[in-house]
Amino acid sequence: MRPVAVVGMGKTAFGAFPDRDLRSLAVEAGEKCLKNAHAALSQIDAFFLGNFAGPSFTGQNHLAPYISTALGLRDIPATRIEAACASSGSAFFHAYNGVAGGVYDAVLVVGAEKMTSQSTPKVTEILAGAGDCAGEVKAGSTFASLFAMIACRHMYQFGTTRQHLAAVAVKNHANGALNPDAQMRKMITMEQAMAGKPIADPLNLYDCSLISDGAAAVLLAPAERAGEFTDKPVRVLGIAQASDFVALDQKPDITTFPAVRRASEKAYGMAGIGPADVQLAELHDCFTIAEIIAMEDLGFVGRGEGGPYTLEGHTARSGERPVNTSGGLKSKGHPVGATGVAQICDLVLQMRCEAGGRQVPRHSLGLAQNLGGSGASCVVTILGTV
Amino acid sequence: MRPVAVVGMGKTAFGAFPDRDLRSLAVEAGEKCLKNAHAALSQIDAFFLGNFAGPSFTGQNHLAPYISTALGLRDIPATRIEAACASSGSAFFHAYNGVAGGVYDAVLVVGAEKMTSQSTPKVTEILAGAGDCAGEVKAGSTFASLFAMIACRHMYQFGTTRQHLAAVAVKNHANGALNPDAQMRKMITMEQAMAGKPIADPLNLYDCSLISDGAAAVLLAPAERAGEFTDKPVRVLGIAQASDFVALDQKPDITTFPAVRRASEKAYGMAGIGPADVQLAELHDCFTIAEIIAMEDLGFVGRGEGGPYTLEGHTARSGERPVNTSGGLKSKGHPVGATGVAQICDLVLQMRCEAGGRQVPRHSLGLAQNLGGSGASCVVTILGTV
Q: A330: closest CA among A186, A189, A160?
């Protein structure tokens, strides 16, 4: 297994783009990435697409060659990976393995989703397909209701409060307001976050990530060849994917996700670091409670401490460990299949000192955590310039 | 890159099973495979699922952990691969790369699809999603009509006849009649095959593969460790995946599939063999014309010679190079996401001399060709006991 680096990145703005289709978004991100890496099409050995539900959202299936050929890539393996909201984190993981294992030299990974052409009820139904349709979905569950149950239990068990949840939203909106590619570029106050329209008690509108269109792309290459593409390579120091039950009722404890714990343990081991070494992170805040639990499962804080840690400002840009400087899924947007690669892109921007107004001072070791469903899939990636 | 072997296999019968859901089929195949390989769950390092359109056929998405956890697998990476009808061929390809590259030791690959719970018009619509929805599908194309155009052109250009197409169907039905797992276990005569109900001229009912439920599984491991699982390992001598345009109208010549040519060239190169060395093959006969073109693109025969070669009996069980001794997609059935792995399973049965009444005498070097859409994805795998 040889060292691997991210040698290029590109992304679209996230938002609702009625005039753009899935392919044009994916192509825009892919072309920006190739340009960013000064890479020629002929250098690309494989194409991976992370996409959750393109066929359901748009009708179009067989999306990997549909997009790769529009980028001008032919002949090479073009493969779509689906792992719910962790689809492009997983695509990145498999692309990494291909380069690390010596199968490929340069691999383009694109994550993309086009969601806003469907009505919100239809989007909710399609997203629910990442849960257990025969069980929880049949009984009326949506992802907001599943994470509401998780939040209720976390509140009961650890004393987490509505204010803790709101603190996640306020912070992520403050970050997103500085991200030119974010869908919702506005700050919110604690009062606003506390008083949002109810969605699934105790979660309100400001606890829920957005319905978005968007795409993101990265180019991976062997670290020893990174200089051919960029003078600002970012090394993949550790990465792992893990899995668990899809249905919430199969989990013995719904306030912790074993797949996140397992993936992070492996990724930390590979990188030879511990959670205390992580300087900044992009975490999967599909709901505010998810960011709190992620910090606990990743070992940033002890169980039940994620809420107070956020409220005390430790995860703000000015805090000891900034989380979601991009704005996160909450404010940047959550085009499901794009999210995993977008997290990598946002870490790379920080590590290159290209994050503009949201740049943080300590940026040499970052972690991305991409969650699928209510914890059935997770990919944890540790990046470094050290 | 280290040598890799297939060390176990398992499959369900293919057919219409109103009482079975996608997961139960996938679990049956997976469990049979693990038993066949004498493998414990704790030995499995990764799980790959090939599935084309589970979310559209059944509503359930996020299928990899949904199935892997039902098999008793937790923690490990569980990933769904979608590449239209080449989904599980592609899953096998990526699993192979993981083992060859040293990422994993033992990888379980399952291909599965549940199609018959939908009406035939709905199935036709879902399958069309593997074509170009904004172009050819919007204009009314179905896969039968796309392959009908391909057949027309092949007839015009090379003199291929209805009789040549029918010869493929007669042969594959003769093979499927001997396969206890086949969906359609009946022989047909040339007269029947010629007189089938029209579907999309010049293709009739007997030129079209079936709508099926089913699953298939294989276990991959490093060749040097194969003995831990089986005394009948089958080596993966060569494998490649390639891609091309999704829309037929983007292809300069619709009577040949560049992705098949490219994938087979790479696979032959890896295996150090040429097409003349292939003793038996499982080819992607989604339509009879597809088997004819596959033989041409794989170099078994020259362009335009696939029809006469079939009619002369060279691809029959008693011929010089048996093709689709399983019955092929035509008679064995075509649960889309299962097909690629099922092809591997059927070659393994031949190579282990476990193919029963359809056993052929020369079985030490076999090739599987799994096609996605009208040629936008292709995986070619060369297996050997030599």
A: A186
Question: Are A54 and A132 contacting, i.e. CB atoms less than 8 angstroms apart?
Answer: no
Give CA separation, B168 vs A50, A123, B171, B209, B292, in Å. Answer: 38, 44, 5, 12, 8
Decide which of 3.40.1080.10, 3.30.70.1130, 3.40.50.2300, 3.40.47.10 is the CATH code for A120-209+236-384: 3.40.47.10
CB A75 to CB B134 under 8 A? no
Which amino acid is present at A155? M
Q: Which two tokens stand for residue B211?
A: 């709508």
Do residue B244 and residue A80 have CB atoms under 8 angstroms apart?
A: no
Over residues B43-57, the pLDDT tens digits come to 999 999 999 999 999
A positions 78-137 inside 8 Å of B (CB): 78-84, 90, 93-94, 97-98, 100-103, 126, 129-134, 137
CATH topology (fold) of A4-117+212-234 = Peroxisomal Thiolase; Chain A, domain 1 (3.40.47)
Domains A4-117+212-234 and A120-209+236-384 share a fold: yes
Q: How far is CA B71 from CA A120, B32, B59, B337, in A?
A: 34, 11, 20, 18
CB A236 within 8 A of CB A99: no
* pLDDT-derived band at B314, boundaries 50, 70, 90: very high
CB B33 within 8 A of CB B218: yes
* Total H helices, total E strands in chain A: 13, 11
pTM recorded for the entire structure: 0.98
- B120-208+236-384 maps to CATH 3.40.47.10: yes
Per-residue model confidence as pLDDT tens digits over B348-370: 999 999 999 999 999 999 999 99
For chain A, the domains span 4-117+212-234, 120-209+236-384
Cα–Cα distance between B61 and B70 in angstroms, integer? 15
In this prediction, residue A185 has a pLDDT band, given cuts at 50, 70 and 90, of very high
Which residues, in sequence order, are CB contacts of B354 under 8 Å at separation 6+? none
CA distance, residue B361 to nearest chain A CA (Å): 34
Q: Report the DSSP pairing between strands A107-114 and A198-200.
A: unpaired
Q: Quick check: A386 pLDDT over 80?
A: no
The kind and range of the H/E element at B95 are: helix B87-100
A167/A189 Cα distance (integer angstroms):
9
Q: Determine phi and psi for A373, rounding to 5 degrees.
A: 60, -150
- Chain-chain contact of A77 with B62 (C-beta, under 8 angstroms): no
Condensed to tens digits (0 to 9), the pLDDT of residues B260-298 reads 999 999 999 999 999 999 999 999 999 999 999 999 999
Q: B291-319 in b/e burial notation, b at 16+ Cβ within 10 A?
A: bbbbbbbbbbbeebbbbbbbbeebbbbeb
CB contact residues (below 8 A), chain A span 267-296, against chain B: none
Coil, strand or helix: which one is B369? strand
Is the per-residue pLDDT at A261 higher than 80? yes
ipTM over 0.95: yes
DSSP string, B7-22: EEEEEPPPB--TT--H
pLDDT digits (tens, 9 = 90+) for B176-190: 999 999 999 999 999
Averaged confidence pLDDT in chain B: 97
